[in-house]
Amino acid sequence: MATHVTIIGAGLGGLTLARVLHLHGIPATVYEAEPAPSARAQGGMLDIHDYNGQLALQAADLMDEFRGLILDGRQAMRILDRDGTVLFEKVDDGTGGRPEVQRGDLRQLLLDSLPAGTVRWGHQVSAARTLDDGRHEVTFADGDTVRTGLLIGADGAWSRIRPLLSAATPEYTGTSFVETYLFQADTRHSAAAKAVGGGSLMAVGPDREIHAHRESGDTLHTYVLLTRPLDWFAAIDFTDAAAATARIAQEFHDWTPELTALITDGDTAPVHRPHYALPEEHRWDRLPGVTLLGDAAHLTAPNGEGANLAMLDGADLGQALAAHPGDVESALTAYEQTMFPRTADTEADTARLQQSLFGDEAPPARQTRP
After folding, report:
1. pLDDT tops 60 at residue 92
2. What is the DSSP letter of 55?
3. Alpha-carbon 245 to chain mean position
4. Would you report the helix, strand and coil content of the chain in percent, each value rounded to 5?
5. Rounded to 5 degrees, what angle do the CA atoms 229, 232, 235 make?
């Protein structure tokens, strides 16, 4: 009989793992802190790449369903100077390998592909420990516990499973997003909508950038990226939406109005999203019966690969467990021997991208979480 798999976290990686296990007849339970699938917004657009995320969806036998989620035209991209000059423009001719979908739609697709009851909602992990018999015990906030011979930490940046394997903790990378949304963009925010175009926009300046995505429903999602210490953001009262918006916009006072409108015309209060990362090439020694995937294993600053890598981690781990029936340790070893170098390659690519964007204005040394 296959070992029951306990997965902590119902993000894209954990759900992809559960789906692949289901296809191979391996029982699994996913424990998720959120009380329900609709408990919070699931973020914006994701470009799912043909070299990782789509491979995971193929392993999950969900490519046809995935194609039904794709938003046509969203692979278009524009890069503008801060005065509005178009530096680069790419049209979406339908042949690109990075189609865009809404993260929430993709998560729901994975949830719908699992047997009823696979995900246990409202189970926030408070602690995890290894027992004398080599099994692992997870304690939830309500005092309930579960014991398992195979524990997978798919619980994100601040994983409660990671300490079983590693003493590493995420540190602030020196950059943050400030997010806002513009609704009914083509009619209510026409200048900003024209600047963004049909897909995504990036406008780059020294230690500051404006990114925007055209999402479904005529919505623009703005990500302002600033290279600033945490103390700088702490001095802003984000509970005062108008004051916070004005303070962020001040950093772009000499930028063209159609770009700054993506900040000043926001229909939602600005939200600070600091970027944290685990140490480069984060690894751990093999501990029987437990491993990590996604951000729990290799958190980095946003680089366009995080969700894709988490899904591929989940697919690879599920396939490894299916390929080594009755031999969990061989499966986990095979998975980690693939995942570790893949992560290192992605980190190196991210470092090169950051240097090309920032040059000598690269973010400062990391800070630990306050």
Report:
1. yes
2. H
3. 25
4. 35, 25, 40
5. 150
3-class secondary structure, 352: helix
The separation between the first and the last C-alpha atoms of the chain, rounded to the nearest angstrom, is 46
Is-contact 82 256, C-beta < 8 A? yes
Residues 6+ apart with CB under 8 A from 3: 26, 149, 150, 328
Percentage of residues in the chain having pLDDT higher than 90: 84
Report, as an integer, the average pLDDT of 14-42: 93
- What mean pLDDT, rounded, does the chain reach? 92
pLDDT of residue 40: 74
**What is the structure's pLDDT at 369?**
42
The label of the residue with tokens 């602690």 reads 127
Do the strands 28-31 and 119-120 form a parallel or antiparallel pair, or are they unpaired? Answer: parallel
Tokens 């997010």 belong to residue? 179
d(CA 299, CA 366): 13
**φ, ψ of residue 160 in degrees (nearest 5):** -90, -10
Extract the runs of DSSP E, i.e. beta strands, from 200-289.
Answer: 200-205, 208-215, 219-227, 271-277
CA distances from 38 to 41, 105, 173, 278 (A): 7, 11, 30, 29
Contact criterion met (CB below 8 Å) for 154 and 293: yes
The mean pLDDT value for 186-190 works out to 95
- In sequence order, which residues have a C-beta less than 8 Å from that of residue 101 and are 6 or more positions away? 45, 46, 48, 66, 69, 70, 71
Residues 136-150, mean pLDDT to the nearest whole number: 97
Taking alpha carbons only, the member of 265, 270, 214 closest to residue 237 is: 270
Question: What value does the mean pLDDT take over residues 29-38?
Answer: 94
